[in-house]
Description:
Elements: E1 4-9, E2 12-17, H1 18-35, H2 39-59, E3 66-67, H3 69-79, H4 91-98, H5 121-129, H6 133-143, H7 149-160, H8 167-174, H9 181-188, H10 195-228, H11 230-237, H12 254-284, H13 290-317, E4 321-330, E5 338-343, E6 354-359, E7 362-367, E8 370-375, E9 378-385, E10 389-398, H14 401-409, E11 411-412, E12 415-418, E13 421-424, E14 428-430, E15 440-448, E16 452-455, E17 463-465
Parallel strand pairs: 2-3, 5-13, 5-16, 9-15, 9-17
Antiparallel strand pairs: 1-2, 4-10, 6-7, 7-8, 8-14, 10-15, 11-14, 12-13
Helix pairs in contact: 1-2, 1-3, 2-4, 5-6, 6-7, 7-13, 10-12, 12-13
Amino acid sequence: MKKTIHINLAGHAFSIDEDAYDRLNSYLEEVKAKLGDTDEAKETLEDINLRIAELFRGVHPDASSSVTLEDVNEIIKTLGDPGDYETPDDPDKATENKTWEEPYVKKQLFRDPDNRVLGGVCGGLGNYFGTDPVLFRLLFILATFLYGTSVLVYLILWIAIPKAVTMQQRIMMMGGAPGSDSWRRRQMSRPGNGDAMKGVLRVIAVVAGIFLIIISFLSLSGIIMAFSLTDVILESLTHEGVWAPGLESFFLMPGQRLAAVIGILLAAGIPLLVLFYLGMHLIFRFKKGGPAFLVISLILWLVGIGLITYTGVQVASGYANEMEIEERKLLDVPESDTIYIEPTEASLKLGEGTHIFSNDGISIKRQNDQPVIVGTPDIEVNRDGANFEISVRKKSRGQSSDEALENAEMIEYFYMQNDSLLLLDRYFSIQKPGVMRGQEIDVTIQIPEGKVVKVADEFKYLIDVN
């Protein structure tokens, strides 16, 4: 265990490790020997002591943390070796050299560990742009209400921006010439230098933490309830019971449904979980596990976004290929001069069923408390045929040709002949577990020449008679 010594350097109290004290004392003795014993040399040595104290104060705002040997060595690199100090014989030149300035240090972006509420991101941004970090904190807090975008940005910055650990990194974080007036003003204005400011920030952090915990907890509970009671909630929100349980199964395949649910849970839940963690961190200020938790959260959130994107791409690719099945049948030519076309009694009547959703000629309706997929057929009657014939062409799309063919085979459409009466379904339907993939049906009826066609009134807007 290292021995700690309490020293007073240019009016500032510090705790310093014994080996660091020996190195600093040796350095100052060498500088003193190099400068000589003139009044100008004493003033220069006092200025050097003051600048060293200012540099130490930037890293160790109070005497609670000790100055290490590494800190002293970095200060010496910044100020230069004793041999770099010139001792001219001319007193006037000595006076000129007494006012030497240290080289300007290029400012770099680091997280500020001494001016932090969470990870020091806002403190580092404040140092880099020469602005009060409170401004950035307010911006991040306000942006949390814009769909939580600031949470993801803060996580990325926390991971990407390095923490200012060493003395040299802290000097680079402040920028400018160490010991200059602007550098000194930035050091004196650091919130970490005042107990009163620390107390105010602590109170604000606790209040913000409680707020984040409450908001994130309520939001997470709402998401869980929404997923567990989706059908109940949506049915109560929609009028006339237009929602039906399991409606998503008509759009997504089983694997796609699972990926979509997991993706939505991760994409929506992870930011809220991070907000809950940040609220706990603001209150209890635990120091371990933070970066690992944030990295894992970011990975899981990206996985969620990836699953949602994957599901969208899979659904879109389900329309890539189109296949067609055609069924032809010769009907018996009736002796009667008139052929009647009417709807079957078993088929869903036009306008029947509660409408839920429509897209490109296909509708989802609620019939007998069950959702069904139905579509309107395109029916054409040609009166100059040689035979009495019906042709039913079923079309559908799929990710592959085989899948498109399977989707087409799941289309149901019935017709029946009873002498001069031809009965047709008003709608075509899709068998379970079929999904909506742009299904269509084209029905062509060939009427022998010389026969008269009479179409039922409710079919007249569906059938095109040539």
